[in-house]
Specification:
This is Protein chibby homolog 1. Pfam families: Chibby. With about 120 residues, the chain is mainly α. The chain contains two helices and four strands, in the order αββββα. The protein has one domain. The strands form two sheets. A two-stranded antiparallel ribbon has the order 1-2. The chain has a two-stranded antiparallel ribbon with strand order 3-4.
Length: about 120
Amino acid sequence: MPLFGGIFSPKEMPPWKSASLSNLHSFDRSTQEVELGLDYGIPTMNLENKFENGRWIAETGISGGVDRREQLEEENSLLQLKVDILLDMFSETTAKSLLMEKEMDAWKSVSQRRK
């Protein structure tokens, strides 16, 4: 004998009908390519290394009169400099923001004392 007398038997729910909110599926292929940017051309790659015996081997040589390693070291030092500059800018902005917050708190306390 059921405890609740069959009152608590849930009814089966009908399956969900998922309706797309987008009307892009109704467009033809050329319109979809224009709207979604699907026409991106043929992919290309430029590999400067060799793949031999299951390993990538760096091409050591001179490209344009400058050693590749020197180019990478120069690029790395430039990127390090950029990171340092950005960190300095971030620190300066944070310090200014904290000072402004302190000034605002001071003005709030002064205005509350006057009331």
